Amino acid sequence: MIAQNNVHSTNNDPVESSDSSPITGSSNGTGASRLFRQFGSLFSSPAPPNDPAGYVEFGSISDPVPGSSSRTLGTFAGVFCPVALSMFSALVFIRVGFIVGNAGLYVTLLQFIIAYVILLFTVSSVCAISTNGAVEGGGVYFMISRTLGPEFGGSIGTLFFLANVVGCGLAISGCAEGIIQNFGPTDDSIDSGSIPDGRWWRFLYCSCINTLMLIVVLIGAEMFAKTSMVILGVVIVCLLSTYISFLTQGPIEVKLPRENHLVNFTAAHYSGLQADTLWANLHSNYTKDYTSDGNQVNFAVVFGVLFSGVTGIMAGANMSGELKNPSKSIPAGTLSAVLFTFLCYMALAVLIAATTTGTLLQNNFLFLGPINLWPTFVTIGILTATFSTGLSNLIGASRVMEALAKDRVFGSLMNFVVKGTYKSNPIAAVIASWMLVEAILLIGSLNTIAQINSVLFMLSYLATNLACLGIEITGAPNFRPTYKYFTWHTAFVGLLGTGIMMFVINSIYALSSIILCMFLVIALHLFSPASQGAQWGSISQALMFHQVRKYLLMLDSRKDHVKFWRPQMLLLVSSPRSCCPLIHFVNDMKKGGLYVIGHVKVGEFEDNDSSNDPTIDEYTQWLSLIDHMKVKAFVELTLSRTVREGIQQLIRIAGVGAMKPNTTILGFYDEEQARDFFEYEDSPYRTNEFDGDGMKLFPYRKNGDVKTLGVVEYVRIIDDVLRMKKNLCLCRHFHRLDKQMIARNNHIRYIDVWPVNIFEPKNEDSFDVVSQFMLQLACIINMLPVWKKLELRVFLCESETILENGANFERSAEHRLDQRLKLLRISASIHKIPEWNKDIDFVKYRSILKPFTGKSSSNRAMTEENINRSKLYMQRINHIIREKSNATAVTFMYLPIPPATASIDYEEKCHHYLDLLTELTFDLPPTILVHGIDDVTSTTL
């Protein structure tokens, strides 16, 4: 029979794959008013209106029909309000004065322009993604993970989660700073004020605010989300009061904060609208930051603080599931909010520069309260803007964390998040996020936190631009965003801008975040489940396809050279259950070349009961096999009426362009009992992955089953392969191969090569094409780690035929072979076999064997005497080889060509040809019968 590595195929019906339905991330990215709405989903956590991070919602990923009852928000409520409120954050009342006082008006306006140009081009990418399909919750994480794939998506999602945590800490620090300014001590000599001040007092206040946010998220997040428009209205009223105060308030003295120990005066002058003040504030005048232990301020620090306040452009895209018309609302609402906040910031910067002295700006970052006509408005604005931003970031961080857990990006490491969910509220994720915010608050300085926040958000925006740029470069036909102002140029500028400014803000933070991102990419590539890539789609696949197609077109078979030859393997397999060691061995022998596992399914296409081609249904099972075997191989399946016809198809169609198999590998046709390596107790390939409900995938022929492939057809397949100009290997006894034992056992020491045509020995056998091909394959195997410890042996066979020129030729043959091995850089020892000359009459047996091989024997008939004598001859040679193979791992032998198809008694000759090969390889170690057709070695540079 054809044993474990037989080429024949069963006639069983295809085994249908039972694809499980993994949880797929989805959300509508709506306000927290829908936090508990979708009970049927695994969990629903839409983004609150002011959430720059967004929420993540799991369950159905179907896109509701625009205009349906589930889509209720318009452009203003659904996009404009969330984006505007997120972009105002704590910056508008707390740090614009710090920016103008240090950078000067010119540089401040330049920095706002740079920041908003980066944001504008990133918004273009956001609009492109969000108008190219239904964007679910999770904001940047969702878009990147479903575009760039699980590795980049998971790593950027993790950093985006950290950005939300840092953003929450930033907002809480700003809120505490506002509270201290209004209710803390105001004089160094008098411990006035309602509450004390100090580093650890501030940490206590921040912790109290953080805990209050925790309680709100656990209990009342839905109520908070409903008030987003009201909060935005309050912030705008407070901002208008500031504008009015700048235009109407006269000169006053403003006390400096108690924590400022860098100056020896207690008050600074506010001048009101004056040309001299404006002129003095036009240029940069960097000083020290009194909130961060006197650290020197520079362009990077100022820009980091500025950019941290305008990172809310994703809030509108997070709302796509609730928008009546997302393709129009997201671009219009986001761009209008960006323009609105840009004008507000520019006007605020100009008014500050024209009314406030540099001394006051540099020494009191919260001067807006004392100079306001209604100081309470500024206090309200600071508290509402910072608290709402911090709360939305805490909610967003917890939802992104749950998204990572639900997607199983880190496997079972975050199972506690999934289990710690109560009534769709991710309690465990909220508490974990709250604890990380507490750690961030230990930093203390708002300006330092702002730089970290800016770098992390910039990395998220960089990845968003990278995703769009990658899709655009690959020319993916399904990337058809309705937002028409996106091009690869906008994505590239956004990518370049965010990348540069990350390092401008803080090169250490930027480099650390990129290194962490790359580490996460590698870790997720190695350890995360492979299923996400298939569910989400990965841009890496599109990019690889784009590049591989280009290089395959450049790969020209007419330019092939023997110096760069490598084996391109086509292994024909009936059932992988019974030939796992052979599959693994061929993977070692390919030496970085193409490796294709081919399978022929016997049957008629019209007779198939399934509505589909059965090879389509089975293809995913074979891919799972490749994953289980951990081999670098492709799979080719075909349906044919006969095995021979199917193999011809596979030899012709396997590969693409100039990258096509040059070597075909078949299992041997014998009667050995096959072994199921998926069930064998000590098998390294043991698994129940391919055991279905009462049905095993990849069935194999058991003892007593009728073969579907006959001897004559098998020999004809051998002849077909050679006629199609492919190198050929027949593999026998590979069920005995155990690489683990080779690595552990010092008894197995050799790889043997027998470069002699047993059927027709000649003087030049050791130097012909077939022998050179055998040596090349053996050398390749000997180069690999497990096999490297084995010694390569080449056997030089002596006979009367070979020694017809006497002893001088004997020494010459060994010398020539040694020189040949040195020229080929093959490290091998040569062993002479004197027994052949003593025990075997080669002249007599060569004439007996001629009818069974070669084209010249087409008219030679066989006799029973010749048949018996030829078998005896093979048995004697087999005995000699076995005596030399006690410590051999693998044996390479010369494969004679099969009988000519037009010869007399062809079928009988086929049977006897196979019988002779069976006798020759009886009870040997794993053996490869090799026949090469082309030169594969080179002795020149």
Explain this structure.
The protein has 941 residues and is α/β, with parallel strands linked by helices. It contains 33 helices and 14 strands. The chain has a 10-stranded mixed beta sheet with strand order 7-6-5-8-9-14-13-10-11-12, sandwiched between helices. A two-stranded antiparallel ribbon has the order 1-2. The chain has a two-stranded antiparallel sheet with strand order 3-4. β11, α29 and β12 form a beta-alpha-beta unit. The longest helix is centred in the first third of the chain and has 35 residues, at 96-130. 50% of the residues are buried.
Q: What is the molecular shape? A: elongated
Please compute the radius of gyration using only Cα atoms. Answer: 38 Å
Strand order of the largest sheet: 7-6-5-8-9-14-13-10-11-12
Biggest pleated-sheet summary: 10 strands, mixed
Oligomeric nature of the chains: single chain
Tally the helices: what do you get?
A: 33
Report the portion of residues in β strands: 5-15%
Structural topology:
Blueprint: H1 75-88, H2 91-94, H3 96-130, H4 140-148, H5 150-183, H6 199-219, H7 221-226, H8 228-248, E1 252-255, E2 267-270, H9 275-280, E3 288-289, E4 295-296, H10 299-308, H11 326-355, H12 358-363, H13 368-371, H14 375-406, H15 415-419, H16 427-441, H17 446-474, H18 488-505, H19 507-527, H20 531-536, H21 539-554, E5 569-572, H22 580-589, E6 595-602, H23 614-629, E7 634-640, H24 643-653, E8 663-667, H25 711-723, E9 727-732, H26 739-744, E10 750-754, H27 769-782, H28 785-788, E11 791-797, H29 807-823, E12 829-833, H30 835-839, H31 842-849, H32 864-883, E13 888-894, H33 906-920, E14 927-931
